[in-house]
Amino acid sequence: RLGDDVGKSAVVVDLVDQKHLLVDGPGGLGRKVVRLNQVAITDIKVNIPRSCKTKCVRAALAKEGVEAKLAATSLVKNFTAKNAKAALGDFARFKIRVAKTASN
């Protein structure tokens, strides 16, 4: 939810302590320790051994089709909608506001 890794998916590989997780993810997110309050936990589970290597994590993600499952969650849908709304220009926001007031 915070920092440079906003919107990236990751797998919890291990627990460091009560407030920190060791995560690893596909693409640009490497293995790192993050605070528990900086992540949004979903109910998608990947069966991997504890503290397994990055190669094992990526193989399990590809095998179980996690990216497709994650794209179907409301967390990702809300995140993409929020980013699309933030990327609008002044005139696009104006047109949306006019259409909203005309419909009411």
Give a description of the structure.
With 104 residues, the protein is an alpha+beta fold. The chain has 4 helices and 3 strands. The protein has helices at 54-64, 66-71, 74-86, 90-103; strands at residues 11-15, 20-24, 32-35. A hairpin with a 7-residue loop joins strand 2 (20-24) and strand 3 (32-35).
Read across the widest sheet, the strand sequence of neighbours is 1-2-3
Determine the fraction of residues in helical runs and give it as a percent range. 40-55%
Integer average pLDDT? 88
Share of residues in strands: 5-15%
Question: What is the rounded Rg?
Answer: 18 Å
The class by helix and strand makeup works out as alpha+beta
Q: Would you list the SSEs in sequence order as H and E?
A: EEEHHHH
**Count of beta strands:** 3
Short description:
By secondary structure, this protein is α+β, with helices and mostly antiparallel strands. It has helices at 54-64, 66-71, 74-86, 90-103; strands at residues 11-15, 20-24, 32-35. It has a three-stranded antiparallel beta sheet, with no helix packed on it.
Question: How are the secondary structure elements laid out?
Answer:
Blueprint: E1 11-15, E2 20-24, E3 32-35, H1 54-64, H2 66-71, H3 74-86, H4 90-103
Features:
104 residues, alpha+beta, 3-stranded antiparallel β-sheet, 4 helices, 3 strands, 42% helix
